[in-house]
Description:
The protein is α+β, with helices and mostly antiparallel strands. Helices cover 49% and strands 15% of the residues.
Amino acid sequence: MKTETKKAIIAAAFEPIEKKIFESTAPIFLVTKNYEILNLKSGAVVLDTRNCDVEATWKIFSVLYQEPNQFFPMDEEPGVNTFMQRLFTLKYFLERSSHLTNNNKGLISAVRTIIIALSNLEVHSIKIEFSPLRLLVDKNELRSKKLSKPQVRVIFAGFCHQREINKQELFEAIAEAKQNYL
Length: 182
């Protein structure tokens, strides 16, 4: 493949991601183990993986996840609508990236289980507590056999495992991901 063609492909794949990060006013971001980059202060999703090249996004998160000791468990208390949006975004990303890994089917099923469990309730607040790992809906623990499955617990833990990263470090991770893209 010609160098110019390779550069054009990489630019097309990563440019929308870089643009989102560059345009964000946040100096520090929060990366979760569920393929999310959030504004640290507002909790708003900065990088919506539904609108990005799936392989470029996968490469960026592969770089960000190389150092698991950078992630710390924290309780997560997203708004109900925000949490549902984050679940749908995660499900969509996992479906689109299923050709890159083997374990996505179980995770997709786990996300569906959570969505269905919450869709049948009138929910005002959600909190995911890391220790012990549990889902609180309107301050009451939501219990069910389906929600206690290991894959579902992996999704909950993914929202709780977070890493703060500044804009420059994020651009460095993108640069490293570009090196491994083609």
